[in-house]
Amino acid sequence: MGRPRRYKVLGVLGQGGFGTVYRAQFMGENHFSKLVALKVLNPDTAGIDEIARRLRDEARVLGLMRHRAIVQVDRLIRLDNKWTVVMEYVHGVDLKRLLTLGRLPPRPALEIIAEAAGALHVAYNSHGEDGRPIRLLHRDIKPPNIHLTPFGEVKVLDFGVARAEFANREAVTQQWAFGSPGYMSPERLDGQDDGPAIDVYALGVVLLELLLGETFGKTSADERRHEARVRKALEKLRQLGTHRDVTALVEAMLAWDPARRPRARDVEERSLILAGMANGPPLRFWAEEPVEGLLTEAEQAAAQYPEQFTILTETGVDEPAADSAPMTTWEPASLDAPRFPSNHGPLEPGETRIERHARERTGDTFSLPIPMSTDRTPRRPRSVLPLVMLFLAMSVVSVGGVIFIAWSLAQADAASVVLPDAPPR
Prior knowledge:
Elements: E1 6-15, E2 19-27, E3 33-41, H1 48-62, E4 73-79, E5 82-88, E6 93-94, H2 95-98, H3 106-125, E7 146-148, E8 154-156, H4 186-189, H5 197-212, H6 223-239, H7 244-253, H8 264-277, H9 283-286, H10 288-303, E9 310-313, H11 333-336, H12 353-361, H13 385-416
Antiparallel strand pairs: 1-2, 1-9, 2-3, 3-5, 4-5, 6-7, 7-8
Helix pairs in contact: 3-5, 3-8, 5-7, 6-7, 7-8
């Protein structure tokens, strides 16, 4: 194992029941640095070992899929003896903060939902190492777990409470109350949790809140009560002049019966179609002003406090195996796929195997063990005189040959030259 990884904590991004998420800077060798997010688990959390196993599973399973809206998990390590997840850092704001500015126009709201739905579809339908679908469920879709960057990029965070089916899984599914009540579907409130429709429901609540600018709240497992609550929310959308097709999409996603809800892929497609029909700027242009404004406010608030950097150092060796640890940076398989066993150390965050090889070679003394014997008589150096004599002999022969050829050509030319006649006298 190489040197312990070190991270400089720059600020707090959020806090939850399991721990705290920090913005940090990875401090690598040769002045290499990179911004990351650190999810540091509270050591006194009940069932910390089970949560750590779930997060280890999260790191493995997210390494098997690629989608621009899925925040990548780099590795699970111990920093100062605390379980820590190293993740991709997203420079943006979550939808909960964005909603403090009011409701969103339909087009940006639908584009956000389309991106998140695409991520859920990929998570559920990607294939594992054994060739079978992973069937990854998020189970905690809500505005704080969906982030938006100033460039309109959508990122889905916190798959740490997710459930999946894949080989080498460590965590054992237990009856834990994962998720947020305000975004739980009726069947989840009734103790059922067995399909992707639960994430579609939660995403439907997010869409409703983006369009209304207010929270929907916890529903009921009772069908009549749930449908009455949904009808009331849909009436608010109609009063705002929301297009009937958009209202119909929200209604379908919030259906009491999971079988009546559209699949995540269908939500993605319908949201994109409806977004194309809506008025207003696209998400990538609309997002810049509100997101940059919220980021500036956060930076100004942080500037009021003196900077107190904390350095966290890696401890312990309990981390995912090298063959299953996902990398943050996408690399073409033709260039990066291992072709034979490697004795190299672990990859740094965001580092390719080629970059690791160059880093490990830098400053190293490359040497091979050479067997030595002290009882052998040293061999005398060979004399160079024979080589010199051979070279001189070859030179003489070559020069002689050149002179002979030149003389022969001169004789031939003299015989063939026609002299002009002498001028008449």
